[in-house]
Amino acid sequence: MKAVTRLVDVDKVIAMVGSNSSPNILAAAQITEEAKVLQVGGGTSPSYTNVGFKYIFRGTANGNLPNAASVDAMKEMGVKTVGILSVAAENGKSGVKSYKKLMGDSIKVVAEEVYQATDTDYTGQIAKILSAKPDGVLLYGMTNECALAIKQFRRNGFSGFIYGPEALGVPDLRKIAGDAANNVIFGSGAVVPATVEDSSSAVEKSMLQAFVADYGALPVSDVVYRGYDGVKLIAEALRNTKDISNPDSIREAFLNIKGFEGIGGTYDFSDGSGDGLKQSRSYIIQDGKNVLFADWRAKNKDK
Predict the structure, then answer these.
(1) Which residues contact 53 (CB under 8 A, 6 or more apart)?
(2) pTM above 0.90, yes or no
(3) Using a CB cutoff of 8 Å and minimum separation of 24, what contacts does 247-250 make?
């Protein structure tokens, strides 16, 4: 946490966009809370909001929201049983816990396997999951891990729908998994489109036009959206604070953000939870593109 300590003690920052890693945000919490420095995190784990921190906010969707969106898609597709493959790390544990709570008694877990983040071969775990004959498969891990798992599930004969969190919407997943990624369904606040013209909102389109102008290509991950929204939210709070030198005044201005249009959605922090987004979207991969699940489903009622 040397970097955070330097920002607070040496650079004297009054706000920062936190890490995209939830454990890192929690590790920095003691420093930023004690110094009353606003921290807007980009991690999706539910672990750092709704737990009493006063100066920590989230600049993206709480992981429970995309998870809920994909569980809704499961139910829409008539899934009654799932097999789970997840990474044996904090994000995998909290993610699976979130999914199980959301699935409740409606969807039964018939097999559950884990892998280490350094693993690249999941053959044994996949065999156990497929032997349980689940209606669908749930993956929870980082993008590259999930891409490898998807290819291996397909190679081992599973042709059904695969579900998971927003990590499945990162462009690298489609590049690595190729055609195996078809019929992968995931929840996400926003995904990087195939082209700038495919943007889902004016805010996203404007940001991507500027990004492409500067870097010559689209972002490789929606993580860039989290940083963008985080910076914009801090700017909005600082613009409206009554006293920029008073941490409590900055915090109050952040809590007063309501109806702010970001790439991730419409932010409202007035409930004090630290979470500004209240809903998410679900997508399905078709022919190398992320397609809104609702649009696809309307045309594929027989699936």
Answers:
(1) 29, 33, 274
(2) no
(3) 247/14, 247/36, 247/37, 247/38, 247/55, 248/36, 250/14, 250/15, 250/38
